[in-house]
Amino acid sequence: MVFHSKRTSPARLKGLAIIAIVIVYSWSASNTVSLLRETHQHAPSLSIDDSNAPPPITKRELASDEGLILDPIATETNVSNRTVIPSILPPYTKELARQAIRPVPWTCGDRYEQSVDPLTNQKPIFSFVHIYKTAGSTLRAFFLEYASTCKKSWMGLIGCTGVSSSSIQSGSVFDDGEEQNWNKCRVKTVLDRRHHIYEREETEERVFPTVNNTILRENFDIYGGHFRIGTGDYIFSDSVESATAAPVHPVRHIVFLRSPMERFVSGILYQDKRKSDDEKSLEQTAKMIKKRVRGSRKANQYWDTSLSYLLTPKQVEMFGRLKSSAKKIQTTKLTWEEHFAETKARIAIQNLIDYNPVIGMTETMKESMNILQHVFVNYQFYEDDKEELESDMKELFDKYTPDDTKGVRQNESRNGAVSTTSVLQELKQDAEFMLMFGEYVKYETMITDYAMRMHLVQHEMVTEGVAPKQQSATSA
After folding, report:
1. For residue range 179-195, what is the model confidence (pLDDT) as tens digits?
2. Extended beta strands in 176-250, E state
3. How far apart are the two ends of the chain, measured CA to CA in Å?
4. Are 317 and 35 in contact (CB under 8 A)?
5. Does the predicted model carry a pTM greater than 0.90?
6. Is 341 helix (H, G, I), strand (E, B) or coil?
């Protein structure tokens, strides 16, 4: 609305401006509430008390005029519609960890078996969310080899972070009535040992050139790639209500994370190798990174790459509409950019709790592979090939589990002189820059720290040899 009165005084103009800001800010808050309520419905949340749970991670409480919606005290009237931005991040319990690491119900080597997960009453399907620069290529290769050894099926996907929420919903069809495929998503690799199918993206005639819910539900045990958590929400259902009927999410997720500073530097090295044949020295690389971080902080930006994967497609779309429509308002303590970044980070953490994935960390790759071994090797082998399968499985995990003298392989320049570790050591010589760097990645650190807690509890359950409570979806 534009006012053209020449008699409008400066005081009146100031008052109108304040009213406009209040209206925009109120609209922004109400849309945030709608976002939280709508997106939280889709991921089942487990409220389990565990006195042995690690203490919660506390964050400063933000004043209500800053626009963050804090989690209310749970009561009978609001517990089902609680928000997903808690003022204190909730603890990750041992019971949740037990459910996350429960062993697969299938028999390794049996290509015809139709196994059912007792917690979901559905066939087990795993979704590996490949977050950028978290050893994802190594893990893709691992899952491909695992599927080959156990006679299971794997689909590797690329370019899927932009998939729309409408295209992943079962019941979404084209004009001719055929099911809509996941848009902006390409199938790179397919291995189906049941039907002796192996395809790559360049294969001319392919059985599986596209991906949708029916294809995954009827043909695949594990799929993975650069896509968002929750992309497979509708594989087993065509509505929010049926998707949340089970006590745990019907699609089991696997997520690996890494120290944000390491991930940022590793990504810069990887991008630089792809864009230029010129080899940069260690000092040149550090200077380039400093320039990039300082430029981002000058624009009041925060690094939030993991949010390309840890927010659901619907959450990303709603945040996009909210950000494009609302004004960037300076709040009493936080800028709009910081308010927005922290809000999204808290929702990402809540998604980790709700989807309860197997969590791996590249800094503790040995322990992470131990968790995967607990999940994927239940020592139920096809009887006719039992000895061979058991030997092959041991060899597979030995291949991908680093010993104590080997860390995660870092990206290096062509001459091998520059690595993630050496660049970080160079950057740490500048204490003032490191403070800025820490500020730049602080919301990624917030997410990664919580994921590490989940990882440690899951590994503790593996080392204790604790079996999950076996209860069916109908009896829970």
Report:
1. 788 988 999 999 998 88
2. 186-192, 197-200, 222-225
3. 55
4. no
5. no
6. helix
